[in-house]
Amino acid sequence: MKQDMKNQNLIRKIFTMKGGKNGNRQSEESFDSSGARSDSAIQSLFFRGTTGPTLSQNFQSFRVFVATWNVGGKSPPSDLNLDDILPDHNQSDIYVLGFQEIVPLNAGNVLVIEDNEPAGKWLALINQSLNKQQTAGRGIKSTASLGGPLFFQRQSLRKISEAFRTESKRRLKSCNCASELEKKYSKEFCCPRPQSNINEGELSSEEDEDGSSNISTNQMKYGLVASKQMVGIFVTIWMRRELIQHVSHLRIFCFSRGIMGCLGNKGCIAVSMCFHQTSFCFVCSHLASGEKEGDELRRNSNVLEILRNTQFPRICRTSQTRVPEKILKHDRVIWLGDLNYRIALSYLETINFMQQNNWDALLHKDQLKIERDAGRVFKGWEEGKIFFAPTYKYSFNSDSYAGETIETKNKRRTPAWCDRILWHGNGIHQLHYIRVETRFSDHRPVYATFIVDVEVTEGRFGRKLSGTNI
After folding, report:
1. Share of the chain above pLDDT 70, in %
2. Which residues form the signal peptide (predicted)?
3. CA 117 vs CA 159, 297, 344, 376: distances in Å
4. Which of 88, 136, 401, 464 is deepest in the core (most CB within 10 A)?
5. Cα distance between the two ends of the chain
6. Secondary structure class of 143 (helix, strand, coil)
7. HSE (side-chain half, CA atoms, 13 Å) at 286
8. Which of 75, 132, 129, 54 is nearest to 97 (CA)?
């Protein structure tokens, strides 16, 4: 009997949440009976229309900035200005930056131990660009304690990342799926609970060992959500600090397809997360190189293997969940990286079309376009129209392609659009697709901006459950 009364009180608590007068009266009247209601009776109360708690699903638009850059194994100097690489001027809500070859791809880095120092330097520079107004005169000081005027002593990426997190006492929660009772009667398997924790080391908002943050985070506009390195591949995600509370189910998967088909000099890092009610996946890859005929088939194979073998860990508390474990099961997917697809023309033919700015003629011979049109790779994916010159291969610290001078002739490569950004899923609208002019690497970075639709649950029932433990 006590258990029945307890169950009734629990259910009454659900129905007496803030709402209209009629809704509260209906819930009170429905539980006057001394006996417990059947499942069907309770369920009918949940979905009786406006007389009970309601759940509505709306979409909001967010701006997402995505950039990819092969930096040629060079570590960035402390005075490298990323304002040209991040020219969005804090207009975006989410920043996703993928790098390739952040360390030289030599035997020491590939076979022995991963060098995290360049990744830490890139994080510091990104933070300096995104948060310069908020941390002016303070960002350098905050990182100086880690070694050097801006950069770091050799530490783990996990430790380095702590300086750029905006919630020092909380982590993003691994799973915030609805409880069994919520699932049973709400038709919603995942209701976000903003005040939450997460148990992933590389993810945002991990508490520092001394219990304090390295930066006064209330001054930061953007906070680090995730960062991960696999040999030369490095991906980092930043968000407006007020939005981070709506991220859940953040997971990272690394897939190696390099030397001997198993080492991390080639492959991908995939990041999965839920933002509000919408699942996102960002894939940063470095595919097989080579400009010989048939090398494009190895790149196709890399893509298919990544899609087939990437399996995000299941972290949900519930037996049923809509949180995806495969890349293509996500609502919104963006793939970025050095895909290494080349132009199927000779060096001289390619240069001739480039001098005419005849991008259509070059795109007609672009391997990625050819393979996509034939349905052999990235079937169902989209890419924006390219209106910029090939991004590879340049002589270092030069605007000339390798091979244009006698000194660089032995390094000649046919110019190509190796660096690409594609997307999969509805609700993604591309605004820009641009390359950036910087001489730092033999690749030019490429960025794209998107408007992305995100499902946000509103209404008395969804809003109340999202912040309440029952």
Report:
1. 65
2. none
3. 11, 34, 38, 38
4. 401
5. 21
6. helix
7. 26
8. 129
Query: How many C-beta atoms lie closer than 10 Å to residue 111's C-beta?
Result: 12
CB 391 within 8 A of CB 440: no
Query: Which residues touch 309 (CB under 8 Å, ≥6 apart)?
Result: 255
Strand order in the sheet with 94-100: 222-230, 233-240, 94-100, 56-70, 446-458, 428-435
420/378 Cα distance (integer angstroms): 12
Q: Domain map of the chain by residue range?
A: 2-54, 57-460
| More confident site: 29 or 118 | 118
pTM (2 d.p.) = 0.77
Mean pLDDT of 273-281: 95
b/e code 15-45 from CB counts within 10 Å (16+ = b)? bebebeeebbebbeebbeeeeebeeeebeeb
pLDDT in tens, 366-377: 999 999 999 999
Cα–Cα distance between 426 and 423 in angstroms, integer?
A: 9
On the 0-12 / 13-18 / 19+ scale of CB atoms within 10 A, 373 is: exposed
Tokens of 346: 């000779």
Distance (Å, rounded) from C-alpha 464 to C-alpha 462? 6
SS3 101: coil
DSSP string, 151-210: S--S--HHHHHGGG-S-TT----S--BPPHHHHHHHS-SB---SS-----TTBS-PPPTT
Encoded tokens for 240: 């407006």
Q: Which residues, including other chains, have CB under 8 Å from residue 378's CB and lie 6 or more apart?
A: 303, 335, 368, 371, 372, 422
Pick from 346, 443, 436: nearest CA to 102 = 443
Strand 233-240 to 446-458 pairing? unpaired
Q: How far apart are CA 174 and CA 192, in angstroms?
A: 11
